[in-house]
Structure formats: C-alpha cells, structure tokens
C-alpha cells in the first residue's frame, strides 16, 4: 500500500472546505444590498392641479317699474312741500310762497304785521317795506331792540327770519319811546296812507318822530309814480305830499 504525503492531504482538505463554503453560499441565496439612490435621482412630485371654484351665480333683481309722473300728487302750498324751504307751521326759513303768486290782488297788512310780531316774540312794528307777496317787517321790543322777518302775504306766514338787528343804546332808547307813545299801529297807518292817495298801493312805512309825537312816513305808488304820506302816530291824521 502506497502512503499519501501529509501536505497533499491538507491541500485536499482545504479544497473541499472552500468548495463546501461556496456551495453553502450559493444555496443560501444571500441578500443583495439595495442600491443607494443619488440625490439627483430623487423623483420630483408633480403638484396636483388646483381647481378654481366657479363663480357664485348672482341673483338678478327684477326691475321696479317707474311711477308715472301723473300718479304723484303735487304738494299744496303751505303743506311743507312749497319751494321756499320753510316748514308748514312757518317756523322755517326761505323765500317765496311756493305757489308762484308774486302779486296778490290784495295784501292783508293786519296779518302781515301780526306774523312779524309773533316771530319777534312780541313788540310793535316800526317798519314795513316790500311789494306784492313779500314784506319785510321790523319789530321793536320793549327795550327797543329790533327784529326783522320776511312775511308772505299769500301764505300769511313768515318765510325768512326772524333776524336780530344791531342798534346802539341811544337808538334802542328812542325806539322804545316811540313804540310806547304809538296809538296808531302799522296796519292802521298803511290804510290811512293809501286812502290819502286814491288808487295807490303801499311800498314802505317807517316810524319816526319822538316818544311824545310819533309819526309814520309812508311811501305809496300810483300810476308809475310814488308819493309820500305822513300819518300822525297818535291821531291818525294823514297828509300826502
């Protein structure tokens, strides 16, 4: 029998061991490590499309039929709808009577003067001026202070004012004295002045004189001309010039 050399046996043993290891590795199906992704290879997420909400439908308001002009009642003069801008009770301010009447057939000076006195809070009329519908009334109070208003003869009420008028102490004293001595008021003086010139109409009336002898000076118009009439404030005697 031939004996093997020890080195040959060792080499054979190593060869067998390596082959066995390779066989076992192949049979085990060892896991292959996952590849590493590059930063540049990262997939980019595509943004989802944004849906634009549709506009909310707007309700259409049906057209309101216009009111025919003939269906609206026109305001009557003195009911607060006149063009002078004043209130129906005469407390407002403005001009005109709203009715288009600029030359009434007649003027009630009793009403005109009383409206001026009421607006001033009392006193006596010492001046009256105007023509047609509008008359400026000046009233002297007990202390002689003056208040002015504009009165519509057609409406029979104040349409502008009252407004205070500045006066110095001496004028106030004289006004108070003449008003206190007066016996013929502005309404009566207007009637006497126009009677003194038949067919005339009053344009102005001013109280003068003194406390003991007050005198009205009136301006009247007739036939396109004007005349002056004086009326005694105590007796009422009238004289045209």
Q: Which structural class should the secondary elements be placed in?
A: alpha+beta
Please provide the ordered H/E string of secondary-structure elements. HHEEEEHHEEEE
Uncertain spans = 1-13, 18-50, 52-95
Number of helices: 4
Instruction: Give the N-terminus to C-terminus distance in angstroms.
Output: 192 Å
How many distinct beta strands? 8
**How do the strands line up in the largest sheet?**
4-3-2-1-5-6-7-8
**Largest β sheet strand count, sense and barrel closure:** 8 strands, antiparallel
Query: Would you tell me the overall average pLDDT?
Result: 73
Fraction in helix: 10-25%
- Beta strand %: 15-25%
Shape: globular
Structure description:
There is one protein chain. The radius of gyration is 57 Å and the shape is globular. The protein has an 8-stranded antiparallel beta sheet. It has a domain of 132 residues. It starts with 5 loop residues before the first helix and ends with a strand. By secondary structure, the chain is an alpha+beta fold. The N terminus is likely disordered.
Note the topology.
Layout: H1 6-28, H2 109-120, E1 124-131, E2 134-140, E3 146-152, E4 157-165, H3 169-181, H4 186-196, E5 201-209, E6 214-222, E7 225-232, E8 238-240
Antiparallel strand pairs: 1-2, 1-5, 2-3, 3-4, 5-6, 6-7, 7-8
Give a quick precis of the structure.
By secondary structure, this protein is of the alpha+beta class.
């Amino acid at each position: 029998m031939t004996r093997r050399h020890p080195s040959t046996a060792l080499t054979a043993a190593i060869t067998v061991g390596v082959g066995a290891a390779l066989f076992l590795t192949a049979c085990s199906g060892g896991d292959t490590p996952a590849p590493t992704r590059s930063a540049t290879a990262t997939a980019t997420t595509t943004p989802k499309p944004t849906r634009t909400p549709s506009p909310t439908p707007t309700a259409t308001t049906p057209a309101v039929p216009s009111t025919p002009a003939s269906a609206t009642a026109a305001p009557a003069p003195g009911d607060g709808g006149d063009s002078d801008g004043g209130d129906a009770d005469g407390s407002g301010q403005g001009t005109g009577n709203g009715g288009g009447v600029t030359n009434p057939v007649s003027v009630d000076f009793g009403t005109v003067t009383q409206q001026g006195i009421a607006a001033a809070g009392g006193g006596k009329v010492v001046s009256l001026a105007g023509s047609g519908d509008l008359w400026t009334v000046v009233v002297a109070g007990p202390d002689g202070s003056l208040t002015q208003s504009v009165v519509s003869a057609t409406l029979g009420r104040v349409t502008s004012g009252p407004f205070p008028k500045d006066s110095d102490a001496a004028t106030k004293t004289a006004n108070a004295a003449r008003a206190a001595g007066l016996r013929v008021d502005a309404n009566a003086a207007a009637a006497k002045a126009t009677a003194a010139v038949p067919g005339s109409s009053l344009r102005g009336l001013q109280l003068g004189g003194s406390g003991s002898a007050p005198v009205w000076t009136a301006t009247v118009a007739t036939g396109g001309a004007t005349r002056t009439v004086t009326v005694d404030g105590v007796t009422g005697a009238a004289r045209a010039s």
